[in-house]
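fold-stage: in
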Amino acid sequence: MGGIGALVCLALASWSHFHFKKADRIHKLMSDTKTTPIGSLKPGPVEIKGKVNSTLPPIPSPWTQKHGVFYQFLVQEYHQGEHSGRWFDYINDRSDDPFLIEDETGSVEISPGEAQFQIKTERSTASGSIMDETENTGEQDRTISNSSWDGVDAPEDLRTLLKTRYGKDTRGLLGNITLKYTESILQNGDEVYVFGEVRQEKGKFVIGTGQMPLIISENGESGVEEEYEQKASDGKSAVKSLLIFAGVLGIILFLIGVFVSS
């Protein structure tokens, strides 16, 4: 049984090492890639800075009905584990119309279906036993979140939206489900950093995902790089801990085997 435990630890260490190396590689690629004027783009990893622009009619977001170029309506469900809890996606609805990022040198098309978005937020949460806090970044009200906690149901407009649009409910057999709601919106004129991969499609440049994941961020260049640096550091620590545990377990099993055989 202990041998199986050691093998599991080694397998987890191998999986963690893979993700650590991936995050570390992306962080180094980001650090080595400098901001490029859009008019000077060429195929390969890229970092640009510019303003969102779209010639398509603005689309309304599901919850607040605010019009923008892009929206993401994310509902996450809280699962309590033995020692800690985690959030899992319950609904992840996002628009997928392409839009442009432009600077004074030109513009380039972005395919949001491949993107990770980091949009600055303004948050307000319902009262409850897990969290009751308000965070205001001073930015425009483009992202709003609300949470339903123990005994506190979601506002009626959210419950109706979940039922009519997504066929979901805020209540289960045992009462309210602990849910967190976040709606993020990008509008024309918003200034963003974009990390991604330039490729050519139908005679024009498009930025998508490749060696560099497609990340669209209002948090600035350093915020994205710091996130991947932290992911790499966390992965490295996890690998080290699992290898130490597997090694200690292997030594204990060896000593037990020696003792039993003697």
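fold-stage: in (second)
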Amino acid sequence: MARAWRVIAIGVTAALGLCAAVGLFNAVIDPFGMTNWVKLAGINARKPERETHARLSKAADVRRVQARAIVLGSSRSNIGLRMTYPGWRAQPRYNLAFDAATPEEMYAYLQHAQAVNPLEQVVLGLDTWMLTGYPVSVQPDFDISLLARPGQRLIQLRGMVAELRVMLSLDTLRSSLAAVQRQDEPDSLAADGQRLGSLFYHAPGNELSRLGPRAYFLNYERHEIGLKVPDPKAAKATAANAGKARRGAPTSFDFIRDIVTFCRENGIDLRIYITPAHAHEMEMSALLPEWGAIEQGKRNLVEFLAQDSEFHHTPRVPLWDFSGYSVVTEEALPPENSRREMQFYWDPSHFKEGVGDWVLDRLFGIHRAGHEPPGDFGRLLTRATIESVLAEIRDGHARYAQTHPEDEEFIRRNFEELRGNAVLAFSPPAD
């Protein structure tokens, strides 16, 4: 019996030693930028793994930076909005947007940032799909245990425990080993949370450099179309799940309302904008029922903001719409075989920093002499303007369809191929 206990003790000691070794190695390599113990050139100075583990690394960054101003949104806002833009009032500042973020996740990270350090400013970027009452969701790598909440006791201790759990993970060990091997790659995720498009899109092996700007744009567009038209089996499963959803279950729009309410209750200056994807994105929506859902979502958000302001006797949260047709969103694609990049876009979804600066000009009411936004870029949505703006966007679609027949044909053909050659027509709702 004594010998058996010795064997068990040796095994437990070995296991604890292995866990300690894994934890120490991960803490030193620090692939997600969570400990920042030591910086060793060629070993752990660059943190490329942060880009593919943004939800994890940004939860830790919030504790490190203790920002007073943040950006919430998807990869569009993460790439396009600079925290070094001169119109920000509060500091420190942090871009808390990340790839494929959902409103539920945004709300959780907003609470996390507020719990760590009270916020003064929030810019919320909404992609059009978020307005459509999309079922509530989070991504597989979302981990609520990493996030603090206002009023929670022992916030610092909870954060240390959560980060210790990450350091002891074998998944983190794999990321540490990968990080050591990737030290020659550029780190496109800046210390202030922004993903630097100039580094990300020009990284070695990136398809933009390999294919050229036009081919990359169209390839990405096919990917976007594929997301909008899932395979028949997936669509059937989604429909079945939707039918089982309980009545009154929260949607993406509900969490947008929660974000507005939270900011008002905590005295946070909130500004909202609808992101300026390329016109091709709206042309995709014109082939689907989502065009009408997007319009109604804009109406619903305008009405909610107006009612919230009236009921609580507070200033109305400004809502700017950049999703319409303009000289920015209608930028022409580069010619065939050209290596010339687009001025405003990396791909149909992601706009460049210059466009992001114009967005912030509108949101903050800043005038930068010689850098004014185009007159048709951005519309303030209120009860008084919403219907005229929606009509303007419909007119923009009709005009774009007439002047860009080749683009329309490309989009329609790709949709039909994915839908089994079902004939489709561009048909946003009439006035």
